[in-house]
Each structure stands twice: as C-alpha cells, then as structure tokens.
Design a protein that fits this description.
This protein is mostly beta strands and 275 residues long. Helices cover 3% and strands 52% of the residues. It has one domain. It has a 15-stranded mixed β-sheet that branches. Strands 4-18-7 form a 3-stranded antiparallel β-sheet, with no helix packed on it. A hairpin with a 6-residue loop joins strand 10 and strand 11. The radius of gyration is 19 Å and the shape is globular.
Length: 275
C-alpha cells in the first residue's frame, strides 16, 4: 500500500487531534488589504488534511462541510451552469465546454481501493465548476488523476447561505454516493466495468482555491468578494475565515477553524456590504 505524506500546514491553519483522527485546517484570503465596508474581488483558498495515526488506512469521510466567513460574499449570478454529466463525459473536454463555468482549482490526495486490488494513494488535480443543479447552486469539484489509477470523480458541494459568524456553507452530505470512473482500457482498470461508487471518501488532503472574475449585467464582478471587519478606529482585524466540519464513517466527527488577518485599505468610496 502506498502512503502519501501530508504537506506542511500553511499560515492561518490549525490542527486538532482527538482520538481517532488528526485534522489540519487552512485558509487564506487575498488581498490582505481590504476596504472596511465595501466588498471588492478576492481570492479564497481553503482546505484540510485528515489522518488517523492509529489506523492502517486513511479514515473514510462521509460528509464535508466548509463554512466561510460572513465577511466574504459569493456571487454566481451571471455564470453559465456546467451540468455534472459533462464532467463525466468521455466524448467531450469539460475544460473547453465548461470554461465559462470554471471558478477554481486545487488538489486532492486520497487513498482508493478498486475491487480486487490493494489500496493505492493518488494525487488528483481539482477543477471547480459552477452548476445550478437539483434546484440549488453548486460547486462541482472534478478530480482527475493519472498514473497507476487514472480516475475521474466529482465532489458536488452545495452553496447555502447561513447566519452568524459564517455566512456561506459549502457542503457534500453523502460521500458514499459519489460516482467515478476509471479510464476504460487501462491495465489497472477492469475492461468491462469501469464505473465505481463509494470509494472516494478516504481523503488525506483537500485544497481548493476559488478565483474567478467575470462580467455580469455590464459590470465586472467576482465569485468571491470580501471586506475587512476592522472596528472603527482600528487599522486591522483578525477573524475566523473558514470552519471545516468532517464526518467519518466510524461514527465520529471533527471540527476546526482557521483564522485570517486583514488590514484596512484606503478608500474614497463607502458602499453597502454585499450579500
């Protein structure tokens, strides 16, 4: 069985260890200087690591919940929708067909076991696309790997508004239902059956960057916008940026928060905070 090491935790992250699992959470917002009360385009990077030193394999996740600070707003109106079927199609290039829906990128390191084979740790490239499917907005994280196991699968995160410290929730509640495929004809894939379900939850590292600007209604906007929640009279603020909740098949869960720091930038215009 191959074993992948976890990357060092970036600034702004935190680590929690309780019994069965050790998780690390990271978050980063760019730029670091922002207006006090006006949303401007921003880039958001968020992620986690998950491992269980006492277990021989990477623990299996059943649900992932990423909560983002209310000081960041998500804007998807005006983006074309990329149907999830396009991300599984063998006859089309999702990167070209859904180029207008691309909102981010990243990596996923996971341990995968195909029927009749030993577990193998793979690193997959993540491409994030916007989709309005099943009656709600979603971010579809398409993961593709090469090498020993050429796999493609999609983690469908729903986008929900929330109230309180965290204003947006990205969540996938049923990791066991995720479909994926192994490249037809590859020697490590079955020649007849190449579609698999329920083997993509053993994630040891997840890293997603949301970074997309586009034009809507004649105005340039951004998928992620942010302001700095510094109080009057203060030139900076430290605030909770991302909260990660992970649920495991072994019937336990872990939660951890990553904080961020921002500085107030000079601005001659004051406007209403976006929603």
């Amino acid at each position: 069985m191959a074993v992948a090491g976890l990357s060092p935790r970036p600034a702004g992250g935190d680590v929690a260890q309780t019994g069965e699992a050790v998780i690390g959470v990271s978050g980063e917002m760019v730029p670091g200087k922002l207006p006090r009360s006006r949303m401007v385009p921003a880039t958001l990077r968020l992620g986690f690591t998950s491992e269980a030193p006492s277990m021989p394999t990477t623990p299996e996740l059943t649900a992932i919940r990423l909560e983002v600070s209310r000081n960041l707003a998500f804007q998807t109106a005006g983006l074309p929708s990329c149907p999830i079927a396009e991300l599984y199609s063998e006859s089309s290039d999702a990167g070209q067909i859904c180029a207008g829906s691309l909102v981010g990128y990243g990596i996923v390191i996971s341990e995968v076991t195909l029927p009749g084979q030993a577990p193998v740790t793979i690193e997959g490239r993540l491409s994030a696309f916007y989709d309005f499917g099943e009656g709600q907005p979603r971010i579809l994280a398409q993961v593709t790997s090469t090498g020993a196991l050429p796999l493609t699968y999609v983690i469908p995160f729903t986008i929900q508004k929330a109230h309180g410290v965290f204003g947006t929730i990205l969540s996938v509640e049923h990791m066991r239902f995720i479909d994926g495929k192994c490249a037809r004809g590859h020697p490590n894939c079955f020649s007849q059956t190449y579609t698999y379900k329920g083997i993509y939850g053993h994630i040891s590292k997840f890293d997603l960057t949301l970074d997309r600007q586009f034009v809507h209604a004649g105005k340039r906007t951004s998928v992620v916008s942010a302001d700095c929640p510094a109080s009057d009279g203060s030139s900076s603020a430290i605030f909770p940026l991302v909260k990660v909740d992970l649920a495991y098949r072994e019937a336990f869960s872990r939660s951890q928060v990553a904080t961020s720091r921002c500085e107030v930038s000079a601005s001659r215009h004051r406007g209403r905070r976006g929603s």
